[in-house]
């Protein structure tokens, strides 16, 4: 019976991966440890990973309550800090032109997230909100796009004991997301601190989308774990493109991912975690090469010193990430520095982000 269940779950993941539609957009808040470790660790313990990375992780905690978690991030942090602010304040056109050349494509500049979640004996529920400002365009055509995203996630994870030293974890979650955004605001107006008439803004609402994630993890008593998950399974939904003024079809961001990890606590004050994940396996094999393998490969480590201090580092698609986590009773403070690629190829348009997260965890 246990073997039948394993084969059934893996078969479902494979079939769904072959029938899924490529994604255009999604809202998926990621756990801080996962982000700081180069977006790796889908097989590691931690029920908060179950909401956005691997639903099987919901089975790893009997009780978890986050109420709430607040994250503030500054995108393109290095570029922004290198801007000539003195010249900008004096209104020099050359400085303004330098600003415009820094931003290319559709990338986040400012981001604020608010999240709360509850996990109880495998059942999990979370609610998330994200308010962000994106840049859109290039050079003189660059505009600012405010965007509000909301989402709720609910699901269940269960652990099966296969042998005294090997467990199988399986889970499924459902996501419900909504998007609100406006036409781009002229960046020159924003730089001159001139408020644009709200009546001239064209706000749009993307219809609510419902999509699912499924995942499994094999976990041994020695600390090693192996995971496979299919994220972003669902149908399409329509929205109006406020830039082109036309209706577009959007899809959940589908990805078939696999990961291996190891975690161990030595004595009572030292813990170590390590992970290697392959993201979007189907996309990798569609154009298999060393650069593509590097783009799809994430890896990271975390060192826990005492029960309250954690140091994290990782590589996401070849880009580094770092994190510092400080816990004091129920209070949790994290500082993250991450880099993401905002193009289809590694090295074309990387952008770094500095984030501060504050939360209460029980």
Give a structural overview.
By secondary structure, this protein is of the alpha+beta class. The protein is 17% helix and 52% strand. The protein has 8 helices and 17 strands. Strands 1-2-3-4-5-7-8-11-12-13-14-15-16-17 form a 14-stranded antiparallel β-barrel. Strands 9-10 form a two-stranded antiparallel ribbon. 36% of the residues are buried. Residues 1-24 and 191-198 have low confidence and may be disordered.
Put the structure in a nutshell.
With 362 residues, the protein is α+β, with helices and mostly antiparallel strands. The protein has 8 helices and 17 strands.
**What's the order of the H and E elements?**
HHEHHHEEEEEHEEEEEEHHEEEEE
The total strand number stands at 17
Helix content: 10-25%
Secondary structure category = alpha+beta
CA-atom Rg in angstroms: 21 Å
What strand order characterises the main sheet? 1-2-3-4-5-7-8-11-12-13-14-15-16-17
Distance from N terminus to C terminus (CA atoms, Å) equals: 36 Å
The largest sheet, given as strand count, sense and whether it forms a barrel, is: 14 strands, antiparallel, barrel
Number of separate helices: 8
